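Researcher: I'm comparing several assemblies side by side, and this is the next one on my list. It has 481 residues spread over two chains. Same procedure as the others: predict the full complex and return the structure.
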Amino acid sequence: MKENIILKVKNLSVELQGEKILQNLSFEVREGEVLTILGPNGAGKTVLLKTLLGIFPYKGEIIWRKGVKIGYVPQRLPFIKNVPMTIEDFFRLKDIPEKDIRNILKEIGLVESSKKEIGKLSSGQFQRTLIGWALAKNPQVLLFDEPVTGIDIKGERTVYSLLDKLRKERNLTILLVTHDLSVIYKFSDFVICLNKVSVCQGKPKEILTPQSLQKLYGQEVKFYQHIH
Amino acid sequence: MEQVLLSLICGIFIGATAGYLGTLMLSKRMALVAGPLGHLALPGIALALIYGFDISLGAFPFVILGITLIWLFEIRTKLPMEALAAIVFASGVAIAFLFLPIEQAERALVGDITRVSFKETIFTAILCLLICSILKKIYPQIVLINISEDLAKAEKIDVKKYNFLYLGAIGLIVALGVKVVGGLLTAALVAIPASTSRNLSRNLFQYSFWAVFFGAISVVFGILFFRLTNLPAGPLIILMSALFFLISLIFKR
């Protein structure tokens, strides 16, 4: 594997309960890169992340760099509210020293809320908790599955500025599922447009043309290119 | 007097352990599975009553059979867990009533903790301590699996292994529970103290603590009321437990 490549995927196909979810997907991820996976609902974005984690069976090749640790932020955790649990409790489910829990809570800005019940957090706080949880064992790679709904604009902004900060501090490689085109412009190095097969791949500005988005979503998508 | 003490010790151990286990089952909406398993234990209880051996020993193999069946059906069909549990549970009751001696029916259906022997009590206490220590060890992993199997798998947790230990603990508790409250009421032994605790707790420690507490004192009060009224102890224990649940609603956070 080339030196700075952390993940190589070749001809990946996933079939679940007889339905073809992903077909012949190939891409590479370099260390420190933010790769965004974009696509309509049902395109297989979440399935892709879960397959990379080793949760689903697949055909083709998924080669992670040896010894690489991966953190995972799931899209939603509906059952978490069934359990009375504080943020601290949630982190203690991981086998890590109390000192590390303190440190990570500091990093995500939730030290003061550590005794707050998970079910009572705002959606932004909850997202930050999930990100901190995923990073608690110091992984080199973060897989982030953005919730479809639920986070308000302000919460979303803080979530992404947090991700950006953590990425720089920890030299993280991030694989990101998002629907927010502005996030891609600001934050992402490489985009894969996915609709079961790879519709397009490349740098955000080269790839995200109205034509390719229309091809991806099957209808006109209005957006404005951010110029900073 | 000595008999009451034995009943109390035996009941407290089973009630507390069932309460602790209940906190895990509630979080996966699995609390009612203990019901069908208790019902399925009925043929085993019937055999134990006919041939005069320990009720829990009779119940255990049938409970294990029930867990295996529900687990197999779940893999084989796409029916929801509750439907499968209902099939298994009705069959258990039906089989039991083919040969359950009718004069023993009450003991089989609603239990009888007031007749336990010294040997039984010691055996029960040791088994409960063993179950508790296993539960304590697998607790974080099971909570994580209950929240999200995917998240647990991403953490490299061997989900099958932990589920196996967890189901084993459920089987043992149901087998012990039928001794206290019979085949009909075991689900309540697991579900009610945990629900009461859920109303009062704001963190995981409180959640287990209050479930253990209410599991134990429901048994204590149930047995005391049995002494006063001579009504069957099993139903009294469950009614006490339900009463505590109602009271907890007032303090619900």
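Model: For your comparison table: Residues 153-170 of chain A form the longest helix (18 residues).
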